[in-house]
Amino acid sequence: MYDDVYGPDSSAILALAGLFAFFGLLIGVVFYVLGSWFLMKIFDKAGVQGRWRAWVPVYNMMVFFKLGDLSPWLVLYGLGGALLLSWIGIGYVFSLAIAVLSAMAAYRVGLKLQKEGAWVVLYVFLSLVWLGINAFDKSRWNPNVAPATWAGNGFLGDRTVWDGVPTQPAAAPGYGQAAPAYGQPAAGQPGAYPPPPAPGAYPPPADATGAFPPAGDAPGACPPPPGGTTPPAPPAGDDRPPAPPAPPAQP
């Protein structure tokens, strides 16, 4: 019985299993080296300082998540959940969650590398090919894209600040404010309507022509006489009063 267990057939099976394990490990190393190299090129485009970040396991995916506007700590949450809960058979849920989140990060990174959203399908099926194309094509990093839909989520959104790793710029003041209609002058330009008065203030009166009175004309003041008219002068003569009448003559 022992000869059957440790016989020539079992030795051949063990040797074949060892050969498969060796080639599997070799392929894994090659994939890791290529993936880290491609990530290094993408990090260079994004302005990440320090190429070593692309070669550190786990940490390189955290940087990739951060470039994709996702919290980098999600990588640790997913790996920790997959390792701790795999013994009860639900660790695969966390592994699937990491795969979905990495696709979301790749979608955002692709947008910043001037790629259409459909490119994320290539990442899902051939992530190494996706990394290689984005690493060596002529695309440029453009962080000024619309914020992610999960940017306001405290759990998914990126709130971490790391030295040497760029973050998604915040929207400038007035972002999303509607511009004036075509042909409508802006405030302060010729032809623009005056701004409305403050609440509780009375607007100054206007005359029939629409012009406002000068500031020096106070309310209640007598208007000056019309131009070109002067009062008549008194008649010329003696200014002395007339003499009284003479008394009647005596008979």
Automatic annotation (TrEMBL):
Entry's transmembrane regions: 12-40, 52-68, 74-107, 119-136
The keyword Transferase belongs to this UniProt entry's keyword annotation: no
Keyword tags: Membrane, Transmembrane, Transmembrane helix
Comp. bias (Pro residues): 192-206, 221-235, 242-251
This protein's record includes keyword Membrane: yes
Compositionally biased tracts (Low complexity): 167-191, 207-220
Signal peptide stretch: none
Region Disordered: start-end pairs: 167-251
Protein's name in the database: Large exoprotein
Species assigned in the record: Microbacterium barkeri
Organism ancestry: Bacteria, Bacillati, Actinomycetota, Actinomycetes, Micrococcales
